[in-house]
Structures are given as C-alpha cells and as structure tokens.
Write a structure and sequence with these properties.
Arc Repressor Mutant, subunit A; 2 domains; two-stranded antiparallel sheet; alpha+beta
Length: 150
Amino acid sequence: MAGKSARHAAILDAIRAQRVTSQDQLRELLDEAGFAVTQATVSRDIRELRLVKVPGAGGIGHYTLPDEWESTPPLQSLLPSLYASAEGTGNLLVVRTMTGGAQAVALAIDWEEWPEVLGTIAGDDTILLICREPEHVPVVQRRIEEIAEE
C-alpha cells in the first residue's frame, strides 16, 4: 500500500480503534498495515491530521482528533473528488469546485493554516482564496492541484 491519503486513513483508523500512546507505536501499527514509514513521516502526518495528545488513564497520553476536526474532512479526501479548477490574479486565487463543494473545501483549506493564505470566502461552487502576496498565488495553486491529483 502506498500514498499519503491511504496512510492518513490508516492512522485515523488506528487511533479510533485503540489508544495510540506514541509515535513509535503508531509507526509500528502503520508498518503492520503495510506502510513502511520513518519517524519523521509519522510526525508530519500527525501534524497534518491535527492529532492532539490527550491525557488518559494513569497519566498516559494518547492521540485523538479534536472534536471539531471529526466533522471536517481533511483536504486530501475532499479535493480529488470536488476540485474543478483554479485561476489566480494579483493576490487572489479563485478555486472552482463541483456544485455544493466550495464550503467544505474552503473549511478544509482554512484548517490547513497555510502561511501564504490570509483566508477564504466560499459560495456554492467557488472559493475566493486570499493570499498574503501575489507570488504566493502560483505556489498555493500548485499545492491545491497536487492534492487534487492524489
């Protein structure tokens, strides 16, 4: 098995099924699931998935998702099926989605907290993404297109 989306899904399955108390334990669970990853990859995945470590029984912490994240699908799972196009001008990027997809995608982009992005405004099938600088537009557009192609 390969691919970030599949690996992220395996991580979420693992932390929902059992108390995962360390990155090393998570790396071992991923290895058992067919994902050979380094500790650095696990650390990056934890950050990208916004996992938090909460105290558990006996003071031993375990990874979980913040409550609000449970209802906000990750961008990697939304874009491949909802993305239509993107076009920029100045420091603005207009992202088009399938009908009804813009708000979910905009919320997922906001959750990413990309440093180049000031914010998003979403309609039904269009997102206005405001970048900090005009030179950030092609960077963010390329990132969105790469995620959409995964």
